[in-house]
Model the fold of this input.
Amino acid sequence: MPELPEVEALREFLGAHLVGKEIARVLPVAISVLKTYDPPLTAVEGAEFTAVGRHGKFLDLATTGAAGELHLLIHLARAGWLRWQDPLPSGPPKPGKGPLALRTALTGGDGFDLTEAGTTKRLAVHLVRHPQDVPGVARLGPDPLAEDFGPEEFAALLAGERRQIKGALRDQRLIAGIGNAYSDEILHAARMSPFKPTGNLTPEETTALYTAMRTTLGEAVERAHGLAAGKLKAEKKSGLRVHARTGEPCPVCGDVIREVSFSDSSLQYCPTCQTGGKPLADRRMSKLLK
Done:
C-alpha cells in the first residue's frame, strides 16, 4: 500500500511532469474507480494542471480551465498504483478484467494510468471543486511531517486515546499518511510493542515515539526523493527493516523477526527490540503476552 513517503514522492514526480500541461481527456476504465459525478470528468478537458499537492495518502491534482478551479483527488488504496507513460498507447483503453482503472491523457501525447491489482477494488478518484469536499480528506488528522506538528501536538493527540498504539498510528483521522508498513517501522525504531496501550505511554515514551515517527518517515521520503514513479515500490521494500520480513534477522539485534496475522493484514516486529524478548500471541486468540 502506498503510504506518506511514496505518495509524497509521486506528488513531487507529478509536479515536475504535469504542471503547465493541458488535459485532453480523463477516461475511467473501471466503473468502481470514480466516486463523484458533479462536476463530470469532461469539465477538465482543455484545462491545465496548475499544482500537485498531497493530503495524507491523497494526491491532489489542481486544474484550471473553463469550469474554474477543480481538483482531481486520487487515493491509491491498498493495491493501486500510478504509471507514467510517454507516449500513452494510441488506442482507447478497453474495459475488462485487467488492472487498468483510469487513464489521464495530455494534449502532448503523454499522461498516466492508474492501475489496481487484485479483485478488491478500493482505488478512488474524485473530481471536486475543493479538496475538503472529499469526506476522506475532510476527516484527516495532521500531517506527521508538518512543521507545526511538534512533540507537544503529538502528545496532545495521544492523550485522549485508549487503544493500542499500532491502531492509533494507522488511524487517518488521528494522524494522516501512516499505514501498516510504516507503523511497523516506527514502532521498531521506537523499541515499542505494537500492542502497547496509548494510555500507558510515559512522557518519555511519547517523545521517543514522536522522534521515531519523524525520523522513519523523513528518511523514507529522502530515499524516495527524485525517483521515477516506477521505482518507488522497490525502494520502499528495500528500505523496510521489519515489515514484510518475517523470519529474517533483525538488523539491530539479530533476533528473528516475527509476525502476528489478522483476517486481512499482518504486522511484523522484533521480540528483543520491542517486547522484552517475549513473542506476541496470535491476536485472534489472546492479547499481548506480558
